[in-house]
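Study this protein:
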Amino acid sequence: MDSGGDDRFTDEALEQSVLTRRQAMALGAAAGVAAAGAGALRFPAGAGAATAPTYAPPLKDVPPPPIPLFSDQTLTFQTLFALGNISAASGEYGEIATVVKRVQDRGETYLAFYEEFLAEARSVNRYADDAARRGRRITARNAYLRAASYFGQSLFFALITASNAEITAMASGGAVPASARARERSVYRLMRAAWQDAGAQMRPRMEVVKLKWDGPNGPMPGWFLRPSDDGRRRPTVLMNNGSDAQAIDLWGAGAYAALERGWNVLIFDGPGQGGMLFEKNQTFVPQWEKVIKPIVSWLRARSDVDRDRITLTGSSFGGELVPRAAAYESRLAAISVDPGVVYAGSTWTDGLSTFPGQLEAFEAGNKELFNSNWAGYASGLSLNERLGLSKRLEIYPGSTIFEKYSQIVQYTNRSVVSKIRKPMLVINNEIEQFFPGQPKTLYDLLTRSRGRKYVTFTVPQGAQFHCEPMAPQRRNDTVMDFFDDVVGR
């Protein structure tokens, strides 16, 4: 079978903000060390020769959304995604607004957000179970979708249930303790069960599949959705998540829109994501072609997939992973990234030179000094800031901050994206909080992409923020119209 391409695998955001969802490894932001000119960063001895160009740090002063929700920007950003899911029937305004009020009444803490969304998810899930027992398929499907979305909101903050000492240790680069991982795993399974129960009520039913990848701890969990069971070969979109969203989030971020247009959809948990992380402790890998190439082969072997019309989308952290994979996978018909990212580690590295002694310690490979400096820094952070770091660090291998940081700096696709020849849609946002300027950098590097396109979503559209939490329909229309233009209806 044709393997497709080269097989060589050669903020402080606001005063009360922490490293938020899709803030993708914002060391510089949390540390208050984000700077516009960190210069080239060299790998330590043994990590491989490389340099990292300077990129703009995450934005410090992010304008609030039109409707105020919380004083804390992390809670606000999460809630915007929950509200955006309403357009895909995976959210209900009254349910979400009621949870917001309960969290506000409890002081707007992360624990309150975790517990109140968990309680709401359980309640809606019971409602869905009752509808399913009575044979009310549509009611059950939609309620299960909402329950899955709310479980996902709770899951984002599950590490808050760890002890203060455990959170400090995780923020210092330590491993996630067994009890905290068990809590994440438990809520993840509740989310997955509701998601799959929703799929069982769909027509055609969603297929729960297992996918191989070129790495350990397989197979990967996947979910294949079809608009019809007529057996026709159809165009198919492969949807790649980011660092902390769940499968249910991709339902609202494009899956339902693709189904409406007659496309098949495949969603999966890759290394560092969902079940691979919480159930198998499998963290991210930089060589994302090891994930995507086997999946494309799997899709091409299906009788209901048009093998010449397979497209790939990447969201958030996936905006770096997907271009890397596409550089080595020629069988894709088109690619879309939201946002375009060249160096995901920029949110950590661009401020490191202002952190006294850390850049020198890293360049010299002085693990003890690097770890010690960081532990002292982390211990002085607020609980919320330490939780944010813990969430950002759990997706990387290693048991020290030096080991994890040595992985973080490898997440760049700059040297390979010029290999991409297929059309690529690169999305930018007028207020791209986490990777400002990188979408245009990526677009400019796509020198061989035939039919590349660059789109910026704006404030007047209500689509100004990273991953368009307030405007998923506009984003989905843009992506699917691009794919339809490339591969035909």
About this structure: The two ends are 27 Å apart (CA to CA). The first strand starts at residue 207 and ends at 211. The chain has one domain: 27-60+69-487. The chain has 18 helices and eight strands.
